[in-house]
Amino acid sequence: MRKRTRYGSALLAALVLALAVACAQRPANERPPDTPSIEELARTEVREYQGKNLSSIADFRENSIKGPQYVDRDTYRLRITGLVDQPRSLTYDEVLADRKRYKKVVRLDCVEGWSVDIRWEGVLVRHLLAYAGVESSAKTVILKARDGYSTSFPVDYFYGDRDIIMAYRMNDLELPAERGFPFQLVAEDKWGYKWIKWIEEIELSADEGYRGFWESRGYSNTGDRDKPSFGED
Ligand SMILES: Nc1nc2c(c(=O)[nH]1)N[C@H]1C(S)=C(S)[C@@H](COP(=O)(O)O)O[C@H]1N2
Ligand SMILES: [Mo]
Q1: Which ligand is nearest to the CA of 115?
Q2: DSSP tag of 86
Q3: Cα(120) to centroid of ligand 1, in Å?
Q4: Nearest ligand to residue 144 Cα
Q5: Which string of DSSP letters, residue by residue, matches 50-79?
Q6: Res. 21 pLDDT band, cuts 50 70 90
Q7: Does residue 196's CB lie within 6 angstroms of at least one atom of ligand 1?
């Protein structure tokens, strides 16, 4: 009797362990079972701001290099690395905590010929940079994502006239997985491929020649929306 109980609890422990391992190893591109679809979420989004229509979260064409990434809120960390005074690793809540929230309507233009006007809410990238302390030798901000995607900007881009934000909400909804949860860069004045989703690292670098995923495949490194997206620089 006692033996059987012990056997039973060992089996239970093994099952729990197997389950834990299975969960921990769920690939980020595997959709968790209880995830609402974009269409379901779209029923609760805000579609108007100051008398102007906004696009829907469902109007984007999903064409990410590895499909949507399902990032776990609890284990997520945003790392700020490289040429900084103090490398940082922030939880989702820490990124949002005590930081001023910025809201603005900004259009995303994809090089494939579609656009969306969305009301974004996020934190200022330069506040995050200041939190780590940018060294004077840093010239480039390289952003890296869960799917292996990356893109980059001169440090100055984040200190210009525009308040460049990293968004965690769109149209008054938390960013859905397909749209880059937890964070997407709102890269104003830049082509859509500069709007990196699922950001998990912000690296400060001295390498002014760095090229991200599409940039190293022929797309413009500056990615200015008023210039051709292919070739040029
Ligand atoms: N991590 C990551 N971010 C990404 C991409 C990607 O493949 N991976 N695609 C980019 C492109 S080309 C566009 S147009 C915008 C919007 O893409 P979506 O419509 O797939 O959301 O996300 C950008 N950010
Ligand atoms: Mo794009």
Answers
A1: 1
A2: S
A3: 16
A4: 1
A5: TTEE---TTSS----TT------TTT--EE
A6: low
A7: yes
pLDDT value, residue 7: 66
Pick from 20-29, 80-89, 102-111: least confident = 20-29
Q: What is the pLDDT of residues 175-186, one digit of tens each?
A: 999 999 999 999
CA distance 214 to 223: 10
Task: Say if ligand 1 is within 6 A of residue 190 CB.
Answer: no
> 170 with 46: CB under 8 angstroms?
no
User: 24, exposed or middle or buried, with CB in 10 Å at 0-12, 13-18, 19+?
Assistant: exposed
Residues 6+ apart with CB under 8 A from 212: 142, 143, 149, 150, 151, 152, 193, 196
Kindly report the average pLDDT of the chain as a whole number.
93
Which three-class secondary structure state does DSSP give residue 169?
Answer: strand
For 108-132, write each residue's pLDDT tens digit. 999 999 999 999 999 999 999 999 9
In 3D space, the residue among 8, 77, 43 whose CA is nearest the CA of residue 176 turns out to be 43
149: pLDDT strictly greater than 80 = yes
Taking Cα atoms as reference points, which of 136, 133, 149 lies closest to residue 184? 149
pTM across the whole model: 0.90
Peptide bond connecting 36 to the previous residue in cis, omega within 30 degrees of 0: no
The residues that bridge with 199 in the sheet, in sequence order, are 145
